[in-house]
Amino acid sequence: MGKYKVVKTIKKGRVVLLYNENYNKLLDSMFEGVYFVDNNRKITFWNKSAEQITGFSANEVVGKYCSDNILKHVDNFGKQLCLGGCPLHKTLETKDIIEAKVFLHHKSGHRVPVAIKTVPLFENGVIVGAAEVFQDISKRNELKEQLGKYKNLALIDQLTLLPNRRFTEIQIQKVFKEYIDFKLPFAIAFFDIDHFKVINDNYSHNVGDDILKMLAQTYMNNIKSSDFIGRWGGEEFLAIFTNCDEQNLLSLIDRIRILVENSSFKVDETELKATISIGATIVKPEDDFESIVKRADELMYRSKENGRNRCSID
Prior knowledge:
The structure is a single chain. The protein is an alpha+beta fold. The N terminus is likely disordered. α7 packs across α8. Strands 1, 4, 5, 6, 7 and 8 form a six-stranded mixed β-sheet that branches.
């Protein structure tokens, strides 16, 4: 891509302010989210797609600093990138173009996987800031389109807009038949919110509903389109993963656990978080519908008994 140059700027101190109207319109028309920072990582521009992908308006972020941790970028391991070591910061230090996959924190609380590219901005040969271009790489829209076909049927949970238990049971039967007929392996996992009753009792059932919706979005955003996630009942969700071995399964579910642990939203002035306990298992030759569901459920309770916010797999 080479060095990226701002068309025209006015310098106030060390802040770069864009004022070319046509240039800003072009950026606002882009499918990707784009934002600019100055050398101090102060946000100076935030386009329309950045608003749509993150839920934060330009008025809420322009003038703030990356260190304010608005987007709370994390990596696969839950490392907080905005507080130090983020690709944008590295670009400012090295003047290199950097590409990475991170998980941003939507204003509504859920995690969104994004592919980012950070690019240095130059004026008269001197670096004056950096730009980050990012794109939602979740399968959310594809999954929503699939679920939309069933919205008028009694197969969708009305709160989370995920498949309900009836739909989920149908899906388990479907992959089970494929396993019997074609030997296509699959795994299922139970996700259960830790101390959910405490959240409802302390903050109200409306807040509990918001937690359920937040986690449903995080789940849906971070599975493959070939996988499945449904609400089993209460605070329990059930996922079906295809074409994965035990190592891949553990990596998948632990990444989701980490993303949930690093998700939050504000209730008044309180930053409210939740954690989940997970039990997951790969289908075995002797399994039937009841046995695989029971084993995953028992593994989920093992996670709770061992301290919660963890994964158990068999």
